[in-house]
User: Which sequence fits this backbone?
């Protein structure tokens, strides 16, 4: 059995496609009629034990996991094997914990990230559209920027007023929206809980809880600082990003590339977009960080690979692949195996003996090819 989550993009399309290829039963648990079919879930599953069962929006009936455990164990005794259930649904931390406790040894997790740069045409136009609109398929494929913006705004409203209430403690939607917008303005900046709490007229404990919720739902990324014993004062606060660039732009009211190009957030938005693109295709063993000292040494993204080696990555929005002195100082501190500058161009070439200029596509392909 597999649980696909926590945040799915195009998961229903995926489920239906799988269902067509196999003799499958598809249940949308947001639909009342489909929920009614599970009034006696054990009996229903026993009647379709030779077919793949796809359960969409599983978070609507979290108590179902206890029943599934018994059904799976009975199936094992009858040599029914693996892959009997495909479970889809936005997964809160509580839901993931529940599945881990109830279905330990019986479940595998697959995360479906938004569209990445490797899933679109390798052209500058397609790449910039993905950056502006984000990776939700309906947003990326919209007929125009206005329709794309409307799609993302609808998602934001739905998430704030319906979905968040299901996954976390009661949080005022207006407060969470203000926080989300503030974090979008602060894209790629160091997380300062006290400053956010003052702006929201809330407690630091409450703001921390709100940010934890947004991070658990994969709407925010907290990029941790890389810690190493170099005898220097290191920045200890994480950097925070709205993970989908299209959502960040919608929160800021940025509808077009022309607006984005003139906005103060443009450089940090591009940085977040590149980071999410690279991490979406990197093996699970790769651990991401950033590095910064009080003296100005800085690396935008440090990747610790599965074998313990380090890659240092500088991210530039410009067509120039030059890096600042602080990057070289930081590399001297942590001594990465390889160093890259990801820039907005398409060519790949050596900048120096130790630094490679690469496109976002080229580095993403190299990361995806890693086998550890």
Assistant:
């Amino acid at each position: 059995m597999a649980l696909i989550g926590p945040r799915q993009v195009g998961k229903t399309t995926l489920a239906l496609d799988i269902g067509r290829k196999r003799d499958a039963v598809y249940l949308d648990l947001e639909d009342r009629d489909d929920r009614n079919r599970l009034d006696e879930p054990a009996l229903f599953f026993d009647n379709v034990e030779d077919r793949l069962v796809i359960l969409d929006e599983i978070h609507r009936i979290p108590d179902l996991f206890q029943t599934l455990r018994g059904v799976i164990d009975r199936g094992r005794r009858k040599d029914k094997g693996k892959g009997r259930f495909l479970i889809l649904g936005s997964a809160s931390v509580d839901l993931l914990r529940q599945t881990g406790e109830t279905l330990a040894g019986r479940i595998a997790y697959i995360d479906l990230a938004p569209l990445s740069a490797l899933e679109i045409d390798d052209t500058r136009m397609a790449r910039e559209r993905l950056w502006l609109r984000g990776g939700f398929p309906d947003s990326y494929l919209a007929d125009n920027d206005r329709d794309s913006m409307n799609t993302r705004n609808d998602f934001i409203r739905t998430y704030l007023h319906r979905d968040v209430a299901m996954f976390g403690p009661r949080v005022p939607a207006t407060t969470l929206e203000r926080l989300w917008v503030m974090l979008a303005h602060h894209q790629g900046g160091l997380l300062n809980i006290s400053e956010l709490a003052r702006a929201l007229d809330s407690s630091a404990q409450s703001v921390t809880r709100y940010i934890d919720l947004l991070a658990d739902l994969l709407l925010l990324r907290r990029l941790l600082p890389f810690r190493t014993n170099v005898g220097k004062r290191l920045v200890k606060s994480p950097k925070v990003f709205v993970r989908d660039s299209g959502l960040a732009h919608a929160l800021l009211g940025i509808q077009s590339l022309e607006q984005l190009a003139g906005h103060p957030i443009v450089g940090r938005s591009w940085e977040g977009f590149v980071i999410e693109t690279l991490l979406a295709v990197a093996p699970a063993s790769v651990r991401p960080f950033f590095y910064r000292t009080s003296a100005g040494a800085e690396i935008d993204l440090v990747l610790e690979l599965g074998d313990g080696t380090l890659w240092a990555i500088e991210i530039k929005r410009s067509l120039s692949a030059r890096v600042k002195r602080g990057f070289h100082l930081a590399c001297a501190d942590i001594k990465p195996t390889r160093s890259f500058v990801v820039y907005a161009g398409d060519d790949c070439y050596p900048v120096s003996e130790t630094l490679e200029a690469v496109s976002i596509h080229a580095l993403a392909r190299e990361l995806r090819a890693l086998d550890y």
Remarks:
- The first strand starts at residue 2 and ends at 4.
